[in-house]
């Protein structure tokens, strides 16, 4: 079995196993799995409105997935996508509210702000890892909480006057699309989906075709050999986290400029950043894989909202299924690893 | 407000916040000393918090004042079993241990919330009536000076945590089990050649991390939040992990670090009652523990000395 | 016949390979029995079967005539079989005593009885003349003492049969001499020894009988006194082996590498290179001889820019390259074959092609304006593969899939292809079979004949003496002496490596 086939098979099998496990849990908890999954399907694809919602939710998932996949390729685990997303969201909304410019300037400016904010939020853990060898997992998780509390503070005290939400962004900074609204029965699908597709191509290009991508992958595979060959490992680590943070920040722009059009106090994380981890893993850390996985997860999440309605099943079931899919994907690589060893010994 | 009163409040709040962190960090020490990275401590705390609250709500009328303690025992078992999932994925299936740990966190939250909704029909449980109260330790609290500072208004788990930390230190450094556990984390192949079963050791160590994480979550829920919802455990598991690293994978070091982080966490809780702290905008107090964690890792450790084989799956026959 | 160990018709398979194919080994009580074979022939695997780390697919093992089933090292220990590993199985952070007692700790109620343990360690070490410090940490003691700790581990467990796996790889001639003395003491005390090695001289000197293994199969067992190195080499490899590589007289030219008073610290902050001076000229091979740990690694890292030099200068063709970044050093004309090809030489998950441009990918024609040109990359890869006889299915194969010898050939190809002025080769033939070793030696001499300066670092004295035009002996971070290979002996080199420098008057002083 070729390596390629195996790389595709593991995620697919993991999804199937995850869904089966979900069915089992429903059964054991006294629910009807068939009804549950029908509700799930209907909730994602049953009406054109839901399709729109699925694609809309997939949009920030794509960015979050790209962010984490990108960092993974360099051997870094960016759990900070959640925080990078939040700061991107705030930055985009800030620009959207504070200025009033022609759309051709305002929208790109807001997007750029999100990009830079996310990049900065990724830069800090990147720098700490490169210079001081501090593990990025803990730093990024801490940064997530700092972002959460700080953004709440900003919303309450800077972007609004003691309110729970910011004012609405100006129309000139909005990603909302009357066209999409028309064809999807007024779902919240917006123009950000185009940006997401562009981002997919950009990531693919950087990783596969550029000298930067060559260095990042090399550092991810073998830091010692990369350093030996003359590459700057520190620079690669920092750049990787910066670019990763930028992708995640853009994901926040999707929410701030497209989905909602404002920012609001949050008592806990949106979960998009964490789900991005699942998206990246399921997508094999490749750009096209992330695209497919993001749509799948969008469908799962949107569809899950229908499960309590149509089948009386708590929508958290889908979170369990997603967690199991990650476990299966991560564990599935033993198959690939064993086969690779077989090939090596045969030489 | 008198300085001493402020100090009393700070110390008891710090001990309250630190206790769950100490237990959980000790769990992390066991796991990582055997060579298995355990990011899933957050999820193990969630399971501990969840099961202890459910048990408490269900049985408090029957067990009275013993309820929180028995709930902790139940949390130990549940946490240990849940951790075996991580063990299986990481040890037997050689999954990336960080990924597996993160998945455990998702899974724990998902399972806990699913069951909460299933059992109670809503996303947040009721408040428990039997919990770890802040008490005055009989006898010790009457010692002049330190008695009021350290033994009044504290919860028993706080000091039990410290005692357990000392016990874990003893086990790790003075007993044959501890020597073998550490050898497995430093050089599993060497341990293997000395006849030690690396896989069994690691499974047991991860199981222990689940036990201790479960205690941590149960203590947290039953002394601080007094109920369970999706935001009950929000970063404490990760903080415990940081405490372990800050403490250089040494039980006593982790304990001191956890006390420090407990202190940082308590700032935002009691900040409103203490005159000087009242002036500081709440946001700084809220982010203080997280910023301090980062500074601690960056400033004090930098190049942390993890057990040599931490995070590396042991494959027999690979040279 | 009084056989203490019998391994009869052993077959051990791994996925895709038969490591031991119907091998029979019989060891008499009280003898030193050599197990001879090339790297990768299957000797270590066979002994790992005996030691219980692996289970054979077929075959039978007998200890003192009784059939046994050795399922894990504990069983082997109980049967009196002990193994002194080639790559020490020692835990750096633990003390000597802790390493020895691990798994069989003397107890005092629930705790480890450290005093009793140390006492037992002292007793055994005195009885067999194995000088160790029970309380020292492994990371602080010498390689020789570490090996003695390995030996003590087996004796602590009551080993009667000791397996030594390539024990002399990291020792000086003097330490080898000491080890041979220890082995003879062990025999006198009634032990039996199996010696795994590929060093013919040692076998002739100390062993009673030798069993030869080639490519997983047993070739035969001989009495050492009835044979000679040529015959053994022939059996080991399957054909006649050249012991010396053909080499014409060298014509050294200008100074290419000039190192003056170099000071470099190691990773622990201790000075590893202390005022080192060295010159390498164009068209010559300078071999650095020395025991591992005397600063060789740090020296090379300093030259190539991987480690900071605290003071002193490194000049290449007159240009000061001290403390330049690795990339700048490479661009100045230095090529480097690293001592650990998996860690430093290759990115195993990259293809061969990608590995061939690891240092050149950012230059034309491999890339332009940051965008890679894979056509050019694979063109270059194909040419290197062809010229250096790298056996690989295609240039798109991942480097991981290649054998050690082919990986090393690819690395050498990549380095030589850049046409450097200075070629540094660190342990270039470690772990390779004879064919690959011959190939690499020929290439090094070829580079020297083309006017390159070659700096060779190796622990194999034969290799140093064979290839070098001049030998520089490194001891405690400095060059203690430079000798002519044609006029020196192993004994003299050994003494230098241990720090004894002959004075002009012919007297010896210890540095």
TrEMBL record, chain A:
Annotated transmembrane regions: 7-28, 48-72, 79-99, 105-124, 189-207, 237-265, 277-297, 317-335
Membrane topology annotation: Multi-pass membrane protein
InterPro entries in the record: ABC_transp_permease
Pfam families (UniProt xref): BPD_transp_2
Coiled coil, from the record: none
Keywords: Cell membrane, Membrane, Transmembrane, Transmembrane helix
Subcellular location: Cell membrane
GO molecular function, a single term: transmembrane transporter activity
Superkingdom classification of source: Bacteria
GO CC annotation, single: plasma membrane
Protein name: ABC transporter permease
């Amino acid at each position: 079995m070729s390596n390629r086939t195996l790389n595709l098979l593991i995620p697919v099998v993991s999804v199937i196993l995850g869904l089966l496990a979900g069915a089992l849990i429903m059964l054991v908890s006294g629910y009807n799995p068939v009804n549950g999954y029908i509700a799930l399907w209907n909730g994602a694809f049953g009406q054109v409105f839901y399709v729109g919602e699925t694609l809309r939710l997939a949009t920030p998932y794509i960015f979050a997935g790209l962010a984490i996949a990108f960092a993974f390729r360099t051997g870094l685990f960016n759990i900070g996508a959640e925080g990078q997303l939040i700061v991107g969201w705030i930055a985009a909304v800030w620009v959207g509210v504070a200025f009033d410019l022609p759309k051709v300037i305002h929208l790109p400016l807001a997007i750029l702000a999100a990009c830079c904010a996310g990049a900065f939020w990724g830069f800090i853990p990147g720098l700490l890892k490169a210079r001081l060898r501090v593990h990025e997992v803990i730093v990024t998780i801490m940064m997530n909480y700092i972002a959460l509390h700080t953004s709440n503070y900003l919303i309450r005290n800077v972007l609004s006057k003691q309110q729970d939400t910011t004012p609405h962004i100006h129309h000139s900074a909005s990603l909302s699309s009357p066209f999409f609204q028309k064809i999807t029965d007024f779902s919240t699908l917006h123009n950000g989906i185009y940006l997401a597709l562009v981002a997919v191509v950009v990531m693919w290009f950087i990783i596969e075709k550029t000298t930067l991508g060559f260095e990042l992958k090399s550092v991810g595979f073998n830091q010692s050999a990369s350093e030996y060959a003359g590459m700057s490992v520190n620079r690669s680590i920092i750049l990787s986290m910066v670019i990763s943070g930028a992708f995640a920040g853009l994901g926040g722009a999707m929410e701030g400029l497209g989905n909602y059009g404002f920012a609001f106090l949050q008592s806990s994380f949106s979960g998009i950043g964490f789900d991005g981890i699942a998206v990246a893993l399921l997508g094999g850390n490749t750009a096209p894989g992330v695209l497919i996985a993001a749509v799948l997860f969008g469908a799962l999440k949107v569809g899950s909202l229908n499960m309590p309605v149509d089948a009386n099943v708590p929508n958290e079931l889908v979170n369990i299924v997603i967690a199991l899919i990650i476990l299966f994907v991560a564990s599935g690589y033993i198959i690939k690893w064993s086969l690779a060893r077989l090939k090596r010994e045969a030489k | 407000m008198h300085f001493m009163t402020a100090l009393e409040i700070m110390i008891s709040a710090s001990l309250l916040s630190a206790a769950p962190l100490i237990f959980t960090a000790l769990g992390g020490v066991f796991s990582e000393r055997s060579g298995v990275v355990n990011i899933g401590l957050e999820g193990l705390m969630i399971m501990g918090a969840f099961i202890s609250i459910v048990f408490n709500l269900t049985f408090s009328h029957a067990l009275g004042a013993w309820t929180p303690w028995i709930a902790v025992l139940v949390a130990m078992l549940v946490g240990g079993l849940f951790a075996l999932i991580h063990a299986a994925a990481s040890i037997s299936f050689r999954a990336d241990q960080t990924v597996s740990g993160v998945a455990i966190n998702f899974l724990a939250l998902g399972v806990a919330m699913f069951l909460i909704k299933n059992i109670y029909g809503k996303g947040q449980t009721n408040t428990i009536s039997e919990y770890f109260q802040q008490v005055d330790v009989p006898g010790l609290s009457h010692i002049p000076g330190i008695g009021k500072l350290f033994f009044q208004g504290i919860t028993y788990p706080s000091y039990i945590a410290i005692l357990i930390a000392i016990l874990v230190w003893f086990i790790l450094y003075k007993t044959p089990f501890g020597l073998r556990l550490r050898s497995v984390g430093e050089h599993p192949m060497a341990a293997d050649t000395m006849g030690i079963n690396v896989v069994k050791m690691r499974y047991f160590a991860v199981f222990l991390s689940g036990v201790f994480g479960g205690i941590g979550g149960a203590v947290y829920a039953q002394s601080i939040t007094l109920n369970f919802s999706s935001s009950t455990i929000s970063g404490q598991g990760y903080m415990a992990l940081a405490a372990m690293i800050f403490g250089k994978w040494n039980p006593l070091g982790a304990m001191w670090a956890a006390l420090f982080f407990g202190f940082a966490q308590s700032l935002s809780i009691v900040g409103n009652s203490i005159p000087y702290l009242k002036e500081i905008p709440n946001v700084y107090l809220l982010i203080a523990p997280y910023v301090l964690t980062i500074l601690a890792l960056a400033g004090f450790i930098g190049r942390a000395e993890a057990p040599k084989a931490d995070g590396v799956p042991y494959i027999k026959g690979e040279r | 016949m009084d056989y203490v160990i019998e391994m009869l018709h052993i077959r051990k398979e791994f996925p895709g390979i038969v490591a031991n194919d119907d091998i029979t080994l019989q060891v008499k009580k009280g003898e030193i029995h050599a197990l001879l074979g090339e790297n990768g022939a299957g000797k270590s695997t066979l002994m790992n079967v005996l030691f219980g780390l692996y289970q054979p697919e077929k075959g039978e093992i007998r200890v003192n005539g009784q059939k046994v089933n050795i399922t894990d090292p504990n069983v082997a220990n109980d049967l009196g079989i002990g193994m002194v590993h080639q790559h020490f199985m020692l835990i750096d952070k633990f003390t000597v005593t802790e390493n020895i007692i691990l798994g069989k700790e003397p107890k005092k109620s629930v705790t480890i009885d450290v005093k009793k343990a140390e006492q037992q360690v002292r007793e055994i070490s005195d009885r067999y003349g194995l000088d160790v410090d029970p309380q020292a940490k492994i990371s602080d003691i010498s390689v020789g003492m570490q090996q003695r700790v390995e030996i003590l581990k087996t004796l602590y467990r009551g080993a009667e049969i000791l397996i030594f796996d390539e024990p002399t790889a990291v020792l000086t001639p003097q330490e080898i001499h000491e080890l041979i003395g220890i082995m003879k003491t062990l025999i006198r005390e009634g032990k039996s020894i199996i010696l795994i090695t590929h060093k013919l001289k040692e076998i002739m000197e100390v062993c009673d009988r030798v069993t030869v293994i080639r490519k997983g199969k047993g070739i035969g067992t001989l009495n050492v006194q009835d044979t000679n190195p040529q015959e053994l080499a022939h059996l080991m490899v399957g054909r006649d082996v050249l012991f010396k590589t053909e080499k014409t007289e060298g014509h050294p030219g200008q100074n290419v590498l000039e190192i003056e008073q170099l000071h470099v610290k190691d990773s622990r902050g201790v000075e590893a290179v202390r005022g080192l001076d060295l010159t390498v000229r164009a068209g010559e091979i300078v071999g650095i001889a020395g025991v591992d740990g005397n600063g060789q690694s740090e020296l090379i890292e300093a030259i190539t820019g991987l480690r900071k030099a605290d003071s002193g200068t490194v000049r290449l063709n007159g240009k000061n390259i001290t403390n330049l970044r690795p990339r700048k050093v490479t661009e100045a004309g230095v090529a480097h074959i690293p001592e650990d090809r998996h860690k430093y030489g290759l990115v195993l998950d990259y293809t061969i092609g990608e590995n061939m441009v690891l240092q050149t990918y950012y230059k034309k024609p491999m890339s332009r304006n940051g965008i890679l040109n894979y056509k050019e990359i694979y063109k270059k890869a194909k040419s290197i593969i062809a010229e250096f006889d790298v056996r690989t299915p295609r240039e798109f194969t991942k480097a991981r899939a290649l054998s050690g010898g082919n990986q090393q050939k690819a690395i050498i190809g990549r380095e030589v292809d850049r046409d450097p002025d200075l070629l540094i080769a660190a342990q270039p033939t470690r772990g390779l079979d004879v064919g690959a070793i011959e190939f690499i030696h020929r290439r090094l001499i070829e580079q020297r004949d083309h006017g390159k300066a070659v700096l060779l670092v190796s622990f194999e004295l034969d290799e140093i003496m064979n290839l070098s035009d001049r030998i520089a002996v490194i001891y405690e971070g400095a060059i203690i002496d430079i000798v002519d290979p044609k006029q020196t002996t192993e004994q003299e080199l050994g003494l230098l490596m241990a720090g004894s420098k002959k004075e002009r008057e012919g007297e010896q002083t210890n540095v």
